[in-house]
Amino acid sequence: MCRVANSCAATAMAVSRLTALALIFAFDSFSDGLTYLSQMFGVGVPLFNNAALFALGSNAVMLVILVLGSTPLPSRLAGRLLEKLTAKPVLSTLLTIVVMVALLLLSIAYVVGGTYNTFMYTVF
């Protein structure tokens, strides 16, 4: 990740400054901020709770898709499909358009599904 030691040090310093700013401005007291910071590293909280299990269950399909997408499998399948469709350019173009529109619609669905954020309403 960091190829130069100075780059790693600069990154660590920036992260520590942002964390300090979050502790100062996001909480009513400094002790609340330190409690939150310790809980981020797992001090005094269980590894899984009902909210975590619900989030894992509701995103399980996306998790499986992302795991499969991080392997060479999609690239191989697309390569084989393109080899078969090179003789049929119209079908290849049509299939490309259909796949791109489907990906666009799925992306829009996930963005719209994730727009409800209670944080926006409680802060203001």
Describe the secondary structure blueprint for this structure.
Layout: H1 5-25, H2 30-40, H3 50-58, H4 60-69, H5 73-85, H6 89-113, H7 118-123
Summarize the structure in words.
The protein is built from seven helices and no strands. It is 77% helix and 0% strand. With 124 residues, the chain is an all-alpha fold.
Summary tags:
single chain, 124 residues, mainly alpha, 7 helices, elongated
Order of helices and strands: HHHHHHH
Oligomer: single chain
Structural class: mainly alpha
Radius of gyration: 23 Å
Helical proportion?
over 70%
Number of alpha- plus pi-helical segments: 7
Query: For the report, how would you describe the main beta sheet?
Result: none
Provide the low-confidence segments as ranges. none
Number of strands: 0
Mean pLDDT: 82
Judging from the principal axes of the Cα atoms, what is the shape?
Answer: elongated
Q: How many angstroms separate the termini? A: 37 Å
Strand portion, in percent?
Answer: under 5%
